[in-house]
Amino acid sequence: MGRAKLGRVSRYLLVTLGAAVMLFPFAWAVITSLTPGDAVLAVPPDFTPDGAGLDAYRKLMETLPFWRILLNSVWIGVASTVLQLLTSAMAAYAFARLPFPGRGALFSVYLATLMMPLPVLVVPLFIEMRTLGLVDTYFALLAPTIASAFGVFLLRQAINQVPKEFDEAAVLDGAGHFRIFLYIVLPLIRPALATFAIFGFMASWNSYLWPLIIIKSPEFMTLPLGLATLHGQFTTEWDVVMAGSVISVVPILILYVFAQKHVIASVAQTGLK
Amino acid sequence: MTSPQTTTAPKTAVRAAPAKPVSPRRGGKWRYAGTVAVFLLPSAIPLMLYTIIPMLGSLWTSLHEWDLITDMHWVGLGNYAELLSDPQTLTAFGNTLYFIAGYLPLVYAGGLGLALLLNRAMRGRSLLRGIYFLPVITSWVVVALMWKWLLNPASGLVNWALGLVGISGPGWWTDPDWAMPSVILASAWKDLGFVMVILLAGLQAIPKEYQEAALVDGASAWQRFRRITLPLLSPSTFFVVVISLINGFQVFDQVRIMAGGNAQVVVTQIYDLTFRYGRAGMASALSWLLFAFVLIVTAVQIRAQRRWVTYG
Amino acid sequence: MSRKIMTTLVATALLATACSQGSATKAPTGEGGKTTLRYFTFSAAPDHVKDLDAITAAFEKANPTIDVVVETAPYDQYFTKLQTSIAGGTAPDTFELNYENFVTYAGGGSLLDLGTVAGDGDSSAYAAESLNSFKHDGKQYALPASFSTVVLFYNKDLFEKAGIEPPTADWTWADEQAAAEKLTDKKAKVYGDYQPVQFFEFYKTLKQTGGEFLAADGKKSAFNSPAGVKAATWLVSKVGKTMPTEAEIGGTADYDTNLFKSGKLAMWHNGIWQFAGLKDVPFEWDVVVEPGDSAKASAVFHNAVAASATTKNGKAAYAWAKFLSSSDVAANTRIASSWELPPVSDQQLLAGYLKDPKPANRQAVFDSLKSIALPPVIKRQQEMQDAVTKELTEAAAGRKSVDEALKSAAAKVDALLG
Q: Which residues form a coiled coil (chain C) (predicted)?
């Protein structure tokens, strides 16, 4: 009894202490963003700065066509996430459940697409897009994120964890693969789907090098591109940069909290486990 | 989204489980060809167009001398030969391996510990998970600035704490010998939440009945962890290890922002060669060396998984 | 249902790639016979976007048939983007280049010889030396658009408090060092001096002590010499003595700017682009031409406008480059906003620059032009800069002696030239 209590207390202590360490940089970014110009980046940091305010946020809105940029990032992020979820889940199902010759080899090809560093891919991809006449378009921003080998792998592992008996039974009941995929497998891998949704969205949301190269018109600008323009050749207004960084974290955080709730709820609801 | 079948189908499934499994052999090897095509094409086509074709483009580039702004010159395997005789290549690969060797154990052990802790019922669990995930979504620009401050040799918190226990702290990222450990520390810290999230999803997929049955049998906490949790978590572990290795070999942002010129890894070199030094052909050749390396490492892992990964 | 989604998806992907061909080849002329001219720049964002807008508006008013579309990128990634667009055959019609990178582009054939589109273009508006900096093989490949110089900033209050005479144009390294040592007060975290240890400072101090970076034929390095050792020692010896070490700076962003702004730095080697940011600091400061050793030499940074060799609007490109670099509107806008200086020959225009009360000794900016040190330029420029900076950093951190550092830097530079 006493030991169990001690265990619980020390566990809480550990987790809370860890949480404080994890929160530190973010808290620092928030404070920096609320701190006017020169007081920023003092060493050691001044956690009770004078004249704190929302000036940096106001300036951010003024310097950048902020809402336009945010809207671009959000819609591209959402579109890319939905597409990736769909294409990856389907491929994952094929790799996990449909026997076909060369399955292992093809899966290796999928994985191999993750192994080439982006800096050497952007130039050939740019030339390809130019040949296709897609430079400076929404489609070009979206194209490299339609499919994700990362997602295929993650979801394949999740489907592999689902006992085969479930769908084999459904096959006996006369269900086709589309029905099994939609009504048995997908609901069972909801935690993995939710996890992948976060990472898929993040990948698009933080993508920098490719948008930098393919986008020319300001109306297609995404958030990381916008934030990068705040860095001058000689000096940078760090409070504004931090304000932008803080804002850019918020949507993913919301998505994460939502996805986590959803995962827990879905596991509880199905009453399966 | 939850259809009525969701809740009913598995129940019938469980009941029907002992039934004879369907034979996949009926109708020959290509029986599922049509279905497979429909399931695979939506991802295969974009991957082909937007990753594999550019990869082949870089293979072509690797056989040329090219500064991006003038015409390419054919050099055959010249770039590869030059790379293999350049000591910088070895340094870059060595540093990359160093990074992985330090990063992977740290991030996996930490992530697993966190996932186990936060998988239990406790107050404020969702909030805590959110907090631990924050570094994953915070940009490297912010994280690197913060860690440079923490690891500041003169006035940083870490060296101050080390000083309290009588250790004189190192120069961290300002010292070429300590630049890599600094990057490893910051990267592991940042990615803890990533591993935690993957492993949490894996933990939630482990049927509770197993744990309960083991509890009834009188298994200790350690035995349950060793015999049930770890084996059933192995698909997620496999995923984390494979992905972390693939990503680890391509470590870039944090090295560039944190260590600057004090540490060169393969991809920082690739970036410099392509965009700063006007040697895109050389960079492509280096990428293909890296690619071959990662491919072999991954293939070995896939072979080895049969021995330790258990699927449901 | 899912089959439908999939079919649509696949079809969309195919359609999008198949049908969209040709849009990139659309004519550069927009509606109403207007020519669209693209200009790509690194120096405008984020602080001078409005100033550039004003220049653009004035140009479009004077040239109603031309529509200038500005694209900006942060300096760090500007060349990444520029190179990729040249590689892909979609280079912007006009773009900004700095002096150090100009040779790479001009030599590579990426730039339009402006002589072919200038007509009877009159170039008397430019300061001759600036104009000549952007000639390659006798052809004018770019027009100088702006320049800035490096001077010695100093905190008047700190000098007064320490009872030291403020720097003058006659100062030498020895004077600077003596003052810096007196002004440094490590307890109060006040430093006497700040001069970055890197390539650009090195080639300049080398010249200040009578040395040369490259041999006269440009085929070998010449800086591993007594003068080179003296220059490098001068830079390196400040670190830890009158200037904070890298460990003390600790990766703080814009550390030196903040140190000076907070009144804890007495002398600061930096560019005139810092003027605008120092307007409201709560202490008195001024500038002076940098001290030399056996000679005076000041660094000048030049930016220019070039046109792409592939542009279909050569004449419009020239008109814009000329307007942006030498028109009164552009010159006045730059002067009024302290957005570097226009490289114009008209002293009347430049006189406006001196009217601004802060810093008092603005004349020093023009004085510094009397003996300028242009950076050595080679084809593999960036590699050279990185190599020299890296070796000097090693020496500054005490991991190598100055002799060793210079020796290995010289070997690397020779390899790049060979």
A: none
Report the chain B residue with the minimal C-alpha distance to residue A267: B204
Interface B-C, measured as beta-carbon pairs within 8 A, has a size of: 82
CA dist A186 → A155, A190, C86, C266, C285 (Å): 10, 6, 46, 67, 68
Residue (of A208, C298, C219, A45) closest to B150 by Cα position: A45
pLDDT score of A48 more than 70: no
Of the candidates A25, A195, A248, which has its C-beta nearest B135's C-beta? A25
User: CB distance B41–C383 less than 8 Å?
Assistant: no
Establish if C279 belongs to a structural domain. yes
HSE of A183 in the Cβ direction (CA atoms, 13 Å)? 20
Written as six digits, the tokens of A204 are: 């698009």
Q: C374 and C236, same structural domain?
A: yes
**Burial level of C172, CB count in 10 A (0-12/13-18/19+)?**
middle
Could you tell me if C396 and C257 lie in one domain? yes
Are B204 and A158 in contact by the 8 Å Cβ rule? The answer is: no
Contact B49 C13 (CB under 8 A): yes
Which of the listed residues A22, A37, A53 is the one where a domain comes to its end? A53
Locate the chain A residue with the closest alpha carbon to B203. A191
Does some domain include residue C160?
yes
User: Running DSSP on this structure, what letter comes out for residue A100?
Assistant: -
Determine, for residues A256 and B132 on separate chains, whether the beta-carbon distance falls below 8 Å. no
Task: Looking at the structure, tell me whether residues A24 and A68 fall in a common domain.
Answer: no
Instruction: Give the model confidence (pLDDT) of B16-55 as tens digits.
Output: 334 444 444 555 777 788 899 999 999 999 999 999 999 9
pLDDT 10s digit of each residue in chain C, 418 long? 344 544 444 444 444 444 443 344 344 445 567 899 999 999 987 888 899 999 999 999 999 999 999 999 988 889 999 999 999 999 999 999 999 999 889 988 899 999 999 877 678 889 888 899 899 999 999 999 999 999 999 999 999 999 999 999 999 999 999 999 999 998 888 999 999 999 999 999 999 999 999 999 989 999 999 999 999 999 999 999 999 887 777 666 778 888 899 899 999 999 998 988 888 889 999 999 999 999 999 999 999 999 999 999 999 999 999 999 999 999 999 988 888 899 888 888 888 888 888 899 999 998 998 888 989 998 889 999 999 999 999 999 889 999 999 999 999 999 999 8
Do A47 and A138 have their domain in common?
A: no
Please report the sign of the dihedral spanned by the C-alpha atoms of residue B62, residue B68, residue B72, residue B73. Answer: negative
Give the residue from B38, B40, B64, B69 with the most C CB atoms within 10 Å of its CB, the best one to mutate: B69
CB-based contact, C257 to chain A, within 8 Å: yes
What is the span of the domain harbouring residue C74? 29-147+301-355
| CA-only gyration radius of chain B, Å | 25
Q: Which among A15, A37, A53 is the end of a domain?
A: A53
Enclosing domain of residue A45: 1-53
How much is the pTM?
A: 0.89
The rounded distance, in Å, linking the Cα atoms of B141 and B256 is 10
CATH code of B77-308, in short, is 1.10.3720.10
Number of structural domains chain A divides into: 2
Q: Which tens digits make up the pLDDT trace of B283-307?
A: 999 999 999 999 999 999 999 988 8
A111 in the same domain as A44 = no
Say whether both C255 and C390 belong to one domain: yes
Distance of CA C124 to the CA centre of its chain: 24
Q: Which of A41, A228, A233 sits opposite C43 (nearest CB)?
A: A233
Tell me the shortest Cα–Cα distance from A127 to chain C, in angstroms: 5
**Per the CB < 8 Å rule, is A119 touching B271?**
yes
Q: Are residues C239 and C341 in the same domain?
A: no
DSSP structure string for B187-200: HHHHHHHHHHHHHH
**Local confidence band at B5 (pLDDT 50, 70, 90 cut-offs):** very low
